[in-house]
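All the exercises in this workshop are built on plain-text protein records. A learned vocabulary of local backbone shapes supplies the integers on the structure line. Once this layout is familiar, the rest of the handout is easier to follow. An example says more than a description, so a record of this kind follows:
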Amino acid sequence: MKDFVYIAKTFRLLKEHQPGKLVLIFALTLFMGVNSGFSIMLLIPLLQLLNVGSDVTGSGPGYVFHAIAEKTGISFGIETILIVYVILITINALLQYWKTMLDTRYQQTLIYYIRRRLFMKIIHAEWPMLNSKSKTNHLQVLTKEVPNMAEYVYYYLRLITTIIISVSYIAYALAVSAGFTLLIIAVGGILFFVLRRYLFRSFHLGEEFVSSYNRLLKYIDDFWQTVKIAKVHSSEDFYFERFDEASNSLLNLESTIQRNWSLPQLIYRVAGIVVLVIIVYLGYHSGRVPVTSFFILIVLFSRIFPQFVAMNTDLNMILTHVASVKLVMKLDEEFTNEKRSDTQSGVAVELEKEIKLDNISFSYDDGENLFDHFSQTIPARSITGIIGESGIGKTTLIDLIAGLQRPTDGKIFIDDRVLDDDILPHWKAGIGYLPQDSFFIDGTLRENLIWDSPVDISDKDIMDVLEQVNALHLPERFENGLDAYIVNYSFCFSGGECQRLALARVLLRRPRLLLLDEATSSLDSENEAQIMDVICRLKEKVTIIFVTHRMSLLGLFDNVIKL
């Protein structure tokens, strides 16, 4: 039962996303449902007019229309009748086109709205929250499951449309022949009850498909994360077998899902043909239904029974997508609507005196205290080294200073100001962070150097900083210079070159505080010496905190924090 709670919660999203357009779609659906059946029923009095003379008395719609025609002087011939009917059908077709375009636009904007909502929540979530979640799950939700949820909403809307149209057809059919109509409804109800197991199966197949797709994404991501190891160890078969297993699972599930909703359609259609034959046979031999009405009844039946097929299909697809809806709604609930901090226009905090850690304590969930009433002072415009054994908390300490983690006790002061939510956005605006492994996006050199800078950066600024980090020759290597488009940077540049480019990107942010987390640990001694020479010249303007395990660097630090 808990699974279906997510179904109800989706209507909250529909209420938030263009409710006016949704009401319009429902209104058009209702009008067209009624009008579609009415257009067919209108054939009865229109055709009856051809057989009603002015000297004949009687009852029925045809006689009413004939009386109106006599009083108004309008002559109803076959041409007039067909023109009126064509006009009505054309209007209905135009409305159907308009509704189709509205449906499509609503579905596409819903995908945009949900994706934007979720991604906004994800990128503004707290670091501990993000760090505890699966990247693959997030990618799956944003790329695959959000469109599935939009399809789920579409099938809901189509189901409601089908129900409205079916009720309209049934109402008109009851007016023509209640007995035959009740027979049609009874057969449809019996078939729905008999075939209900296919609906329950759809729910479980949807869950299996979501799980298999997640495995497929995970296996692809695993390969790219370890592609070099895979090539060196010649372990391609291992990755291929896992990928092929997930792909084959998806292939079989696709076929099973298709069969699960196609088989009930086949049964409904065959049953519909049998019932139609029975109605024609009984109607022909009973003689109680006029020929015109009998013709309309057959037309209505040909419309009613396919609606039963459509309703069963829509329900089937809705239940198949429930697993996707659960993933989307679960992600939506896990991440709260964090207030967005406008760091792009915020003024960075000036660090003039010191960073003071006052009696702070911190531990991860279910872990021992990494810091227990820890105090330390980091002077401004100096290089402070943080050293210690692996796992002792060096990276956690700079995470606390950067505001990614919050101490469970104690306070952090920036020039006598408490580092709290009020100044945190401005504090982050003045931080430059350089990790051990450089990260680059697929794009031009210029994009990679300025994409996270809060201010406008000119090409002259870029070249000045590249010269500062001894990397001025790198764009000259390419014909297009800074406009050179590069993928897989680690294969285009050496480790030292990548680190110098990463340092240039950090410096282009014009930071007040530079955090270096094992920034030279993957470099050889020559490249490390070049990077450290650049860093040492920066301390006159920038406060630098350097995490390292290399004792050879201790002589370059003005202060040392040993954990």
